[in-house]
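#structure-requests
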Amino acid sequence: MLRSIARRGPLLAAALALGAGVALAAPVAQAANAGQTARASSPSASSTFVVGDNGAVDGMNPYVGQTQVDFEIYGLIYDNLMDYGQTNYAPAPRLATSWSVSKNKLVWTYHIRHGVKWSDGVPLTAADVAYTFWRDTIPNSTEFSDNSSYVATIVHNSIKAIGKYTVQMRVTKPTPGMDLLIVPIIPKHIWEHISEKQVSSFPNNNPVGSGPFVMSSFKINQSVTLQANPHYWGGKPGISTLIFENFTNPSAEAIALKNGSIDFAEGLTASLFNSLKGTPGVTLDNAPSGNWDELAFNNGAATVSGKPIGNGNPALKDLNVRRAISYALNRPQLVRRVFLGYAQPASSVIPPIYPQYHYTPPASALYSYDPAKASQILTADGWKMGPGGIRVKDGKKLVLRLFYGSSSSTYSADAPYIKSWLNAIGIGVTVTAMSDSTLTQDIGNGDYDLFIWGWGVEPNPDFQLSVFTCAQRSAGSPPNYTPGWSDSFFCNKQYDQLYAEQKTLDGAARTKVVKQMEAILYAQEPYALLTYDSDPQAFRSDLFTGYAPQPDSKNGLMLFQEVSWWSYRCLRPAGSSPSLTDRNIGCNHEIGAPARAAAPAASSGLSGGVIGGVIAAIVVIAAGGLFLFRRRSSATADDRE
């Protein structure tokens, strides 16, 4: 599973077994006061940092977690070998201080940091790292399914510790991505007692990690409290307590930020974000993210072996029908009315935040809003207008089912627009809202026509590209198939060949192949992308400073970074000395500061240290639900014009 930005995948049953379906947080009033209560009861109230979010934590097992907040927390409890760099996403050392590859590009050697201890006091060595990757590469295992985009080319039996602090492993073919293994390193002395059969149901309620924080309490789908790890090799964090609080009502979250119950608000609607402008002590910012929403098509559901499944409307196997739908979508209107401007129309699957890989379709092929062209395509394809304004071909009406996750106010706002646009070109649409878990299983079974959902893309696009490979279709047997990452069931041999090729390339050569893959997806239309989403996000700049933006730019991300966790090591109470954290890894608080301007809401309560170090971050997340990824719900139906 992709770190932090994953959504539905093959582990639905396992996640449910861990109790992810338990009722969500307490009533709104209780949730709004929870952060304040936690802060007041903390032994060091001034250094308790509370993050409000509308996504819940469903478990502490890093192999079966699904929500965006899950993976934000896993990255604080566990270390990876390396990180995406703070300033430019380049590989940055973490547990591995350095690494190298043999001349034939097949043998990788990693040098592990000395003197690191697990949170229970046991020394961390190369044996733990080797054990982690040995476990992650067991064929057909839960661990492999979770990390396949990172470890797919690693030869299982080649992984070994060749010294107390050196690990070596071999790959089946040159794999440049071996310098970006964003995989949690687990303690061998704990996990070696968990059998493969137990992994998917192991709650891991007392996680032992080597990261900057340790867990002190966890209320499923409500809150998680972490304490600073005083022995962290990268420097003790500048905050003593870190709390993630779930809000089922974004309005309550905004109120909590205003009254100081929480310090950081993630997941606000666009209208709530706007309502916070000018609030004393609150800084606002809006930044692009690696996230987008799509209207997905059932391209012909099938298992990995090619066996047809499901009850999708066969009309959507016709590329002309999918193209017509894309021309019928008024993406700029979604940006204006649903996102209130905090988005832009989307096209290709690697978003523009990563310009190296982003594919821009030629103007002549762009799916711009053109209902007349959409109608022409359908008519030429044999779909004649019939009774009630619904097109008919070979005696069958063109009526499609549109599903979306009921937890997202964005999707509930998108759906009526999409229905009206398709109705206008003669396509009937029935709209159904359902839980994310139900939608996941319906997709895995192929029992759908259209759905609205979204993805978050990390700086290395490999995982997102893998979603569209034939091998990611459903597996298992009826009545409920095991969902793969592929939810459109797109399968194209040329695309699969290019996917395998890009894994072996780097630099300009890889960029060229990745854009070829994006061009195939754009032309073949497994999805009609809707919007690239920004994230209006707010925080108490009068209380805390020391954010480490990623990337180092005017609108870099603060928290919920692109598969990174830089700021958590560096945050400190406003007015405290920079020396509290400046020696910590990545904590140069003045990075990028000269280029930054304070947001409108930052007019009150700013100290010099805050002005130098604070800039808001944008990360998009879905509102609530079991299978979340890094994207935000935006406007509600009330925000629509």
